Amino acid sequence: MANVTELHVNGGRRRVEAEATRSLLSVLRDDLDLTGSKYGCGEGRCGACTVLLDGRAVRSCVTPVGNCEGKKVTTIEGLARDGKLHPLQQAFLDAGAMQCGYCTPGMILSGVALLGKNPNPTTKDICESMQGNVCRCGTYTRIIAAVHKAAGALKGGER
Amino acid sequence: MSRPESSPLAPRVENGFESSPLAPRVDPDSRSESATLFEPERYELYEEPRYHFDLDRRDFFKLAGGGLVVCLLLDAEAPAQRFGGGNRPRELGAWLHVDEKGQVSVYTGKAEVGQNIRTSLSQVVAEELKLPVSAVQMVMADTDRVPYDMGTFGSRTTPDMAAQLRRAAAAARELLLDLAAEQAKVERGTLTVADGQVTHPPSKRSFTFGELTKGKKLTRAVGAAEKVAPPGQWKVAGTSVPKVEAEAIVTGKHRYASDVRRPGMLHGKVLRPETLNATLASVNVKAAEAMPGVTVVHDGEFVGVAAPSVHQAEQALAAIKAEWKSAPMVSGKELFDHLKKNRGAGGRGGFGGRGGGTNQGSMEKGLAAADHKVQAEYTIAYIAHAPLEPRAAVAEWEGGKLTVWVGTQGPFRVRGDLARTFSIPPERVRVIVPDTGSAYGGKHTVEAAVEAARLAKAAGKPVKVVWTRAEEFTWAYFRPAGVIEVTAGVTKDGLLTAWEFHNVNSGGSAIRTPYEVPNQRVAFHPSRSPLRQGSYRALAATANTFARETVMDDLAHAVKADPLEFRLKNLKDRRLRAVLEAAAKQFGWGRAKPAARHGFGIACGTEKGSYVAACAEVRVDGPTGQVQVVRLATAFECGAVLNPDHLKNQVEGAAMMGLGGALFEEVQFDKGKILNAAFARYRVPRFGDVPELETVLLDRKDLPSAGAGETPIIAVAPAVGNAIFQAAGVRLRSLPMAPHGVKA
Q1: What is the value of pTM for the model shown?
Q2: Distance from the B249 Cα atom to the nearest Cα atom in chain A, whole angstroms
Q3: Does the model's ipTM exceed the 0.90 cut?
Q4: Do B652 and A128 touch (CB under 8 A)?
């Protein structure tokens, strides 16, 4: 398979030189120095590496970079617009929805993808949709509160 | 690093290395008297401080520039930061610096691992210096810039470091007032401090901190006597200040150790033995060495590679052919018999003294006076910390000096490990700890630091080593497994008469019962652990509280008493009574009858100076026996609260983490291999496990602040187990209680 030479990341085109079988996570972190996406397990079971691929949440640790050509990749670094945080980023701050923060970027991107599909999620919807994201510090109730808060803000016309 | 004797690479653990090389232990006698305030920790107390800052202020000014410096002298009250007995000169706990521009910086060896101490320590400094929290810069856990600190563990940051920084900041404020009085030539008592300025209201003149410190090189050493604001007067401390680095986290800007990148940096991988106790028989690295850009190191038992990318490093590692020698090893199935058979081996424990036990009255008399007796055995599984950021380090050698960025709770311990491993003075090692992706007691040792440094030395370039999840689940250390035996007696009126409690291997934390019992024998018995074991959030307090509070439930049922009333009847400790009553009130204990297949349970405990009680409601599903915790109400008290929202966050997080160990977390092993070294096979609490969490904080402004990261976890398992008993009529005496549901 040919190498991947260009990725569409956070609204810009980035030149890379990566074997197509490499994980999107390793290309983002090691080649593009976008370290907001985290390694947690390497098997798609913790969600720390979650990014958006054409708006859909994917586990970048098990996504070959060859599958990402021509698609829009959004990482945590690309979520704020014109210096203004995404309503879910702001909601994480307002709800104090973190301790060590290592799961936070993946949590936020999973939440953004959920809100894209379901603008008015119930707590059950959130729990089911984000079951694959681990917060080992156990701040789940705060993350649920943050997603609800962001849903309200988005409905109120933010963004 | 499983072969310390044969490899120059492995950190040696001095004083009391057990016969199993996988299970390092601390010899309690090697610890200073001041350290006896702690129950036996396994990993963090063995190391002498390698150096400490002397009091020559020129050193510090060279480092930080002019201005005003307050250094906080340690005294006997602060064992968590010092070590080595009373024959040393007094040591420094922390520096506080007001530079010539008025910037306030605090230098402390404590590490931020998600417990939000960067925020709470900023708050106490801001309080005394009358500053906004954002004006305080915290320099933490950088061994070249901060005074020696033994490590961030044991819930000591709040009682020790926060108390010290309050005094340092108060002294700095008084010095600034002196300077202002001198400059303005006014009576000191007419000056006020607010918003980073000293003001003389009669003349309406004011001085910024920078104007006062400009051109000065002033130092002051303060000890325990400095006066600080009482909690009742706090305006910044005691409030829910948001996490100071939160915005860097939600934008992905914060760089954890695993995110650090250095010019020319390579990525390292280490060859792991095929079983936990295997040693290298032979190795062939030729194919790996032939790969372009790859550095291979074979040094004793250590075999590792460094390459320009992780992928190349993985390929090089896969090209290495090794043969291993394994010895037979105890399996998970044999574990508890093995621990009991080796009861008392390899360490100290016993009644009283450092094992934390006691021996009072007569068990024979106590049992003779009892109308009901309960005798039961409990087992506690090994569990994994599973911090979401695995062990990670970046190492760089420059001019004979080693710098390592690493996620750890013990920067000076890691520095000592590196210095010993490479036979260099500690002064030539700098350890920098970026705020870390959690630890929970699991990052006292960070072997990735030594591995990265060895590879970087060979490659002549910086090297990053990030452990895989499988490595973290296999080669880190675990919460100790254990067996607990309890015999108890009670009169028909519900008064405890006899209490015998033996903990084999898991530890002595919270081993004494807080209830009033005239006849007691309580002892911790060390054993031989087949797996490497060490600190875990709240240590054995979770195991001991689980066993004790379950027996208390049995005894209450035996005398047909309400479990809450039975506890209160046998309990004098007012602080523990207060949390029990608060949790019961929040939960509505005793009012509602649970629905079919639902049950209520209550438990309480105290450890490390704080107090917790929990009430749980569970549902046990019919055919599958799956347990769902529906509701968990926790009441917690740790003296004067420094940050209510962050404290609530800790209590909620401990509740969630506690559910894992209570119900389903367990490290499985056989034939020297960990069988579930992946999140797909080791279940941790997830969104679907979240109960309705209710948290009550009792803020005791009249009491000193105690740490709060650990104790909230200890009442979770027994509260849930007692609720399962009510729901399903099954008494569960093993942690985890229901990895495959409850069988009635």
Answers
A1: 0.93
A2: 6
A3: yes
A4: no
